[in-house]
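Fig. S4 source data, part A: sequence.
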Amino acid sequence: MLSLPWLQRKRHQSGDEKLNRSRIASVLLVGGSIAAVGIVSFMSYWVVRGLILNTLKNNALLKVENAGSEIDTWLAKQLGEVETLASSYEARSMKWDVAEPFLQLEQDRLADFWMFILVNPDGTYYTTRVGFAQGKKLSDREYFQRAMKGDSNVSDMIISRTTGKRQINISVPVWSFPRANYAQIPQDRVDVRAKSLLSYNLPSDLSQQPKVVGNLAGNIPITNVSQVVANTELGKGSYAFALDSKGVAIAHPNPKLTEGTQSFLESANPALAKIANAMVNRQHSVNLMQLDGQWVYVAYAPIHKADWSVALVIPRENLEQQLNALNLLAAVVGALLALAIFIALQQLHQLKETRDRAIQESRLNKQLAQTSTQLQDALAYLSTIIDTLVDGLLVTDFNGTITCCNPALSKMFGIESADLAQQDSAIVFSHEITDLIAQTQQYPHQVFTAEITLNSGGIGKAVASAILKAAYSDSQGSLDRSSIGSVILIRDITSEKEVDQMKTDFISTVSHELRTPLTSVLGFAKIIKKKLAEVVFPAVASEEKKVQRTIRQVEDNIDIIVSEGMRLTSLINDVLDIAKMEAGKVDWKMELLDVSEVVERAIAATSALFQANQLELIQHIQPKLPKVMGDHDRIVQVVINLISNAVKFTDHGSVTCQAIRIEDDVCISVIDSGTGIAADDHQKVFEKFKQVGDTLTDKPKGTGLGLPICKQIVEHHSGKIWVESELGKGSTFSFTLSIQNETSQAQKMIDFSTLVQQLREQVIHQDSETNRSQKTILVVDDEAPIRELLRQNLEAEGYQILEAKDGKEAVETVKQQKPNLIILDVMMPDMTGFDVAAVLKHDPQTMGIPIIILSIVDDKERGFQVGVDRYLTKPINTELLLHEVDSLITQGRSRRKVLVVDENELATKTLVGILQAQGFSAIEASNDAELIEKALSTQPDTVIANAKFWEHSTAVKTLKFEKGFENVFLLLIVDHKPDSTLP
């Protein structure tokens, strides 16, 4: 067979063409299928996207409608309240003297109403706040006009002509007599109604209809509407606002947009004006628009009880973030299409792709091996770090089951770490740990700290927080950071606590030691000042200017020494105050306090500061503030400290002192226009010895203990103290005190401080002109300067002075000389002042000598327990010391035996315990027989009896007539004002 080359070439060409056509057909078929699938997928994506987006928009609109429904419900309730009041006899009388008491009581009952307004048909009106509004009318008010037409209505937002506040008025007509639909009243009730109307002097003709005789309006602040609007949100960055029928903002997060009555319809922002127009026309919809440069969805719906509307502004990403799953699906479909294209192309390049795939798989396997190795290394590092942590680590799941812990934790609590896995933390650990876990799960976005007791008896500081994971909420489309467990880190702070206690003890000791020389410096400075003024300077007869100038300079120098000594005393007192508070040794005198009196007392004490610094003082004290329970002097100390700080750090402007009621608390605030405090320093200002600012350029002002002391005082009263401040914008320091029921407290409490004061002032003045030169006082102190200081002060008053340098010498001197009074220090070598007092008070020959403790140690409770008569602290307050000395010298022997008589055993034991703690020898009796028996056996100086017991007791009334009881002091306790039957 003949084979021609050209024929062979033709056959090859024909085969190649067939192969090419087949390949082209295959590519077209695959490409067409992929294109068809792509188009269908693209259309399906947009259809599904639209359905999901409409659902999300409907959810947003439903949230707005729910907010409107909540406002509607609240308005309907308030409208019903006002309609009920308007139908009352008092309101229908249209007589203010009749209606006012009733409306005042209703205003107290209905907390949502600021005031009620009774409006006459001519527009003149009365309010429960100011009475008759002289020279004012409400004729032009729309709500009044509608009410006069018989229409109960809720007004738009207005500015009150009486109070000047933004408010809502709920206005209803006042009918001449109650309306009724007689067509619906049974026939047997028509006659009864006619008789009822006749009994109230109202028209009994059932054909006669009532008339509108006036208008009753309830004035409501916009606070409740603002609160509902503020609580309406949909994710981060969303906010809601409400407009009235004229487009005026009732509530809006931007306070500038709620000033005055400017309508949003006139807004320069066209998008905002467009939304306002739709809301005023009572439309409801969800629109996507650009507002303030940001794409947002705005959902708005009308409120039916009033001509208002509520809108919710939602950032676009908040609403559309739930489309992420659909976008992911679209991406997956696109990837599949790309994979299909890749497979189609693979048909043409099979060999090449096979080779490339092998190379790619090799690379992936290599990367997977590297990643696995890195993960194992990371786990090893993490495990090593956890195991070598000095602090204890505890990790639990959401249910409190232990998932991880380290050896440090096991050591702290003395347990095996291997036994802890998958155990319930509540079984293994104390309630302190389980309480922290519960708190982190209840408040997952907060960090909690607590001090816990370790197994070794040490103290650990625990820091706990929730473990959060990010998840998207299906209903709202917002990011929900849900908790999956808790982590607690525990550090052993036993040594730190010991060091802190050592520091506190050291500071307290140094402060005590400083008081001794300071007492001498201040005392002698005052004596020098007095001697110079009374003796030296009057004896200087020279009229030379130089001599007179020198005299003035000496006087000024002495004044500076005294002033600086007092300032140093104040600083030392601050240090001792904080130490006593931390040790729990403060004597709190709790009583009912008038907050306005406390603030006025603090302002009076600091008035000189305002004059010196030329600052304006502004007071904002809410009238009729309820009373609070607290220590009067300590609360005044807090307010004085806050005001003094405000003056210190304010160069010009004003300082405002404010007191208002917030729910069940009274909040006292001091607001200044000074330098302000950085946000990072807000908590530091309440730390001991901490002063904020640049310590290199700012001169320290004080010890840094004022605010920590204030914090301790406020927290003891179960209140809280905080600061709000920005640099350059002033500061606001506020603290709260709990409101007390004054009536119940007054019935339960006895003014023990007044009672003890009366007992101490109970002195028998046998000779008002006491010959002081015949009275001897023993001064006991191991410091010679203190003894000399007391000698000079007491000899100047005419007393004879004996001295003793320690306790042993004091006891010997007392037994030999029998002084009329002893002034005794506490801190002395070998024998303390408490020991000396105990020895003398247990000796029948010396127990009647009055003893005054004068010491740097402030431990009055122990002093009174050993029987001292007075307890004073250094530095010496000369006037107070001389007063107490004169009182006790005049009294003579110590008179400290008290007999308490009351049938109430609990009250008797309480009073006896308090008197014994104050140094009195107190015993109790519960009936006449015990009273006579114990009075004869103990020979008391004072008898304290309940007034009710005195009324029916014969023993109390006849006791003073018994022999030896002529000078017994009788003190009656009453829980009401005494009447004429009491002695």
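Fig. S4 source data, part B ends here. The radius of gyration is 43 Å.
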